[in-house]
Amino acid sequence: MIGEHLPALQVVVPLVAAPLIVLARRGAAAWLIATIASFVSLAIALALFVEVREAGVVSYALGSWAPPWGIEYRIDAANSVVLVLVALLASFVAPYAWRSAAFEVPEDQHYLCYAMFCLCLAGLLGIAITGDAFNLFVFLEISSLSSYVLIALGRDRRALLSAYQYLIVGTIGATFYVIGVGLLYLETGTLNIADLAARVAEVGTERPVLAALAFITVGLSLKLALFPLHFWLPNAYAYAPSIVSAFLAGTATKVSIYALLRFYFSVFGAHELFEVLPMGAILLALSVAAMMLASLGAVFQDNLKHMLAYSSVGQIGYITFGISLANQPALTGSVVHLVNHGVTKTALFLLAGAVAFRVRSVRFERLGGLARAMPLTCAGIVAGGFSLIGVPGTAGFVSKWYFVLGALEAGSWSMAFLPVVSSLIALWYMWRFVEVAYFRAPGPALAGVKEAPPALLVPSLALIAVTVFFGLDAPLTVGAAAQAAQVLLGGIR
Prior knowledge:
Helix 2 (27-55) packs parallel to helix 4 (110-129). The protein is globular and about 70 Å long. It contains 20 helices and 2 strands. The chain has helices spanning 6-24, 27-55, 79-104, 110-129, 133-152, 158-188, 193-203, 207-224, 233-239, 242-268, 270-276, 279-299, 304-325, 328-359, 370-373, 375-389, 395-409, 413-439, 454-472, 474-490, and strands spanning 58-61, 72-75. Strands 1-2 form a two-stranded antiparallel ribbon. The longest helix is centred in the last third of the chain and has 32 residues, at 328-359. The chain is 78% helix and 2% strand.
């Protein structure tokens, strides 16, 4: 019986965990509840992933109201991948949080941190699983509001300002999105995404539909930090507690990208967007700017977290680059990079948090000779950097290979070189860390510094190992990504 309700439990488990944590109040109990909720969410996500592969699309009607009248949770080959990604990363971040949150979050706010973590997890899973456009907005706000609080919990006073900036931008993005959904509702009379797809196809590219497309594109682009709407992201990631930076970097922007994919390919349709309308050219231009300019911005940062944050904007450009090409290999690359970059960047932010735990800083001027004091941590950062660069044997190489294939299928040799050029810029900014950590003499800031404790090191390096595993066993992720791309390109049936 419980297996029938797994789609509902996917959201309910972390959602119920949040008030339980508030009732528990105690830090140890709060952490334990959050950790259990994360692992249970992962088990449910994996079960749904397997069920979709074996039985096809899973549809779950809430409250016994059949779609399109009631809210539907709908899981297919595309969003089942996102569910696993979000729950998987939560399952690595939660154990890490035991030591990290104790260091970075005031003790009387520990329970609040874990409660907001569970709310954020519930919101992100809800965005991925829902088949209702307005319900997606509700979950978008749940994840966003909890994210604002999580960022503001950072000890640095600039965390509060960063959270406020994110709140303003996030509110604007959510407003744009809900206006777009409202226009679609006025034009079609439905909010169910599958029903929207059928009715929008009948209506065609009328002005209200085009206006809805514009509002939804801008709203979700703000949420996913598409260049040049990324200005909120660097400070939000840099000044938030490490567990927050790691979790949001791997999940929040990726789930927003999924929402954009769902509307672009399932609701509006690839033919109308990329052949009738100039969305492909617009998205391509913004993606190339992100891949080049944001990556160059990472080169000139003097703070490890800031460097990783600007790198995230550049890596998001890769994903939207594949979307703009709108063919099977490129879209496969986008979905697989959504997973690979999520895993890699979460691992890197966790390792940066380990550095902050020992050194009390992530500024390069204080990290000279760090590899001598923290060899395992630095080796993990270098390995994660290899994935960002796209070195063969890492997850990043797999993604970029498919972007090159997608560009070639689109008939453009020049676009095929863009991921290669951007990878050279990634090599440049990662070399800055290597030069500081391995080739400079240790400074006074490293006096007495030793390797990170196992509670921080084990989850971080385990996630780096996942990155390498995904690079060596590419069919595991590529197969799922190819099915997701096929579902998206085929539209909702």
